[in-house]
Design brief:
479 residues, alpha/beta, six-stranded mixed beta sheet, four-stranded parallel beta sheet, globular
Length: 479
């Protein structure tokens, strides 16, 4: 597990006190931040509105609108509500929420309990994936004594799709942490079927900061249109707090990085910035939007000059395909096909491979049960725009001459099981490809093109079915 390195540009707020202490316990937290004021429901919504507090997990939805939606729905029903903190952070390039929950968890608890009091929640659940994070939050809850009795911590699988709203709720409730595929707002029906205020870790921490400072105090940093600070994860390892509106190039230089070949902003559902754009933008929604990018989950990934951008992108797209929820066609078949097309292009597949990538990307857009296919297709399109020459050189066979350094971080995945063909038995019936088309490919003679084929975990049931149904008993699963 990566341990985040912490840094600040300007006065820290969320990371305040961490220059002197590695972790703020309950007493340290009160010494640094002071007591938490009480807020009524409308006062808290008004505060969030005045500082334009938005979700910091990727979508950037206004927090005040979520809060009011929960209050509205609860008033029309039996009044029951819940609060959920999304600390899953399945994005491999992000560590900011992990850093907050490890080092200053009481700030998150403050924000979550403040929101719980405003909506009258019966329960606060903090969903996390890392054991060290779960341990830190449980310790913080225990440090609060009876005041922490409302809060529980749920440990979830570390997957990219875990952080999607319905996936998070499913995981907390003991089901598979997968998106439901239904367009249901958690503010209408969330945890236990009740209206639920669900937001990201940093969002609750910023709410706790603003509650102490008030809207005018909170606005002393940042931009008039985007007040306050932002948490960023740079190069998958360094978590930095900066005032909104700070130059991206300045932040990179301050922490020993440069725009290099380009900068990916927003994580693997984000967008690439060409070096010139990366040098000119500021860290604000408006500036990034002008450059065709989004802040997303706050990931900033510069690509150094010694790595192959095309190879880096191909590696990420394959990982994203493997992270599929496995519930809809665009994910189960579309993303692996897109990954294969990108790999073929990088290996010198020519114009046909380029056209295949464009076709595969079009084929998954707007058709998924969640945003994963769309986000992955947009990532590929952005890379093709910024690194057009590199991809063209690879497609034509000349390549760029650089190795893939693995600059874009990925979570380690378990070695997959393998489907193995016994050639002494195989008769070329072809039933295996009908049952397992995402794993088995046939050669020109109608036999499996490979003797050993990796099987993603989500396809294991289908692989077992292929083994059982093979008329010649020529297949087996090998761990």
């Amino acid at each position: 597990m990566t341990t985040p390195v912490l840094g600040c540009v300007g006065p820290p707020r969320v990371l305040a006190g961490l220059d002197a202490l590695p972790r703020l316990d309950a007493n340290d937290h009160l010494a640094v931040h002071g007591p938490l004021p009480a807020y009524g429901p409308e006062d808290l919504a008004a505060l969030a509105e005045r500082i334009d507090l938005r979700g910091r997990g990727g979508a950037g939805f206004p927090f005040a609108r979520k809060l009011r939606a929960v209050l509205r729905t609860a008033a029309a029903r039996d009044g029951r509500t819940a609060v959920v903190v999304n600390g899953s952070e399945g994005e491999p390039s992000c560590l900011k929420d992990t850093a907050v929950l490890l080092h200053t968890p009481h700030l998150v608890l403050d924000g979550a309990l403040l929101a719980a009091a405003a909506v009258g929640a019966e329960e606060v659940v903090i969903g996390v994936t890392r054991e060290d994070v779960a341990r830190s939050v449980r310790t913080a809850v225990a440090e609060r004594g009876p005041a922490g009795g409302l809060v529980r911590v749920a440990r979830l699988p570390e997957r990219f799709v875990t952080g999607e709203g319905t996936s998070l709720i499913n995981g907390i409730e003991g089901r598979a942490a997968l998106p439901s595929g239904q367009k249901v707002r958690t503010s209408d029906r969330g945890l236990g079927g009740v209206p639920t205020l669900l937001s990201n870790t940093e969002t609750y921490a910023q709410l706790a900061v603003a509650a102490r400072l008030g809207s005018s105090g909170y606005r002393t940093l940042g931009l008039p249109t985007e007040p306050g600070t932002l948490l960023l994860t740079i190069a998958g390892s360094t978590v930095v707090e900066v005032p909104a509106g700070t130059s991206l190039a300045y932040v990179l230089e301050l922490f020993g990085f440069s725009p290099g070949e380009g900068v990916l902003v927003g994580g693997y559902h984000g967008r690439f910035l060409a070096p010139a754009a990366a040098r000119s933008v500021t860290l604000s929604r408006q500036s990034l939007a002008t450059a065709g990018a989004v802040l997303g989950a706050g990931a900033v990934l510069p690509l150094p000059a010694d790595t192959c951008p095309a190879g880096e992108v191909a590696r990420v797209v394959r990982w994203m395909a493997d992270e599929s929820a496995g519930q809809c066609g665009p994910c189960v078949r579309g993303l692996p096909s897109l990954a294969s097309a990108v790999e073929e292009l990088v290996a010198g597949g020519g114009r046909a491979a380029w056209e295949a990538v464009e076709a595969r990307a079009r084929g998954v857009r707007g058709r998924g049960a969640c945003s994963h296919p769309d986000g992955t297709a947009s990532f590929v399109a952005s890379a093709f725009t910024v690194f057009a020459e590199e991809f063209r050189d690879h497609a034509l066979g000349s390549g760029c001459g650089r190795r893939v350094q693995g600059t874009l971080p990925l979570h380690a995945q378990e070695d997959p099981e393998r489907l193995v063909v016994d050639w002494t038995l195989c008769k070329g019936h072809g039933l295996c490809v009908d049952l397992l088309p995402d794993v088995v490919r046939l050669d020109a003679d109608g036999y499996p093109a490979q003797a050993v084929m990796p099987v993603p975990g989500r396809l294991r049931p289908k692989a077992l079915r292929a083994v059982r149904r093979c008329p010649a008993l020529a297949l087996r699963i090998q761990e």
